[in-house]
Amino acid sequence: MADTPRLSIIIPTLDEEATIEDLLSRLRELRVGGAETVVVDGGSLDDTVALASPLASRVIVSEPGRSRQMNAGAREARGRQLLFLHADTRLPRGTERLIASALSAEHCWGRFDVRLEGRHPLLPVIAGAMNLRSRLTGIATGDQGLFMTREAFDAAGGFPDQPLMEDIEMSRRLKRQSPPACLRARVTTSGRRWERDGAWRTLLLMWRLRWRYWRGASADDLARAYRHVR
């Protein structure tokens, strides 16, 4: 169809009234250029849906859970390319051009480098380590703005229905199709989790959870451990 957007930006939300207006306002330029923004709410108890509705191409409500929400958004999206974006993450200038250039015969998916916004002196070090690890392993995190072709998403079967490490598992599935395009352009995401819970404590927790996942622990068990520690 002539009006099919090239890029659909899918944003899972849950009680994001503090961030959603700013995010969607920043995405307005992309919408004017033809991209669509699909907000998928998982049952917010605040004003997220009301604030997002006039600013997004579409707002839908799904079962809670980031994987389920992102899959529901992908089903509703019309774009040939899909970008999954956290509500507290801001995109670099020229995002649509960067993604279009990255998705080629060699790469059917990719991610951006990330910058963590905040005052803690460790945040730049943590972001640098995340970017380097991702480049070496070909595994991306949701904070890095995962993007892919519609065909790659469908071939991967969508995001796995699991409560944690869904981005890790999706990366593994996508790697079977092609290596990721690791863009050096940076998305900026909030460092609030690291500052709130303690940078070293959060870093050690995530390393431990990833190690256990790599060793075969179930995502359900890891999610319970993550909630208990937090």
Automatic annotation (TrEMBL):
InterPro entries: Glyco_trans_2-like, Nucleotide-diphossugar_trans, Trfase_2_rSAM/seldom_assoc. Residues 8-118 form the Glycosyltransferase 2-like domain. Keywords: Cell membrane, Glycosyltransferase, Membrane, Transferase. It comes from the Bacteria. CDD domains: GT_2_like_a. Its main location: membrane. Pfam families: Glycos_transf_2. The keyword Transferase applies. It is found in: Cell membrane. NCBIfam families: glyco_like_mftF. This is TIGR04283 family arsenosugar biosynthesis glycosyltransferase. It comes from Halomonas gemina. The lineage of its organism: Bacteria, Pseudomonadati, Pseudomonadota, Gammaproteobacteria, Oceanospirillales.
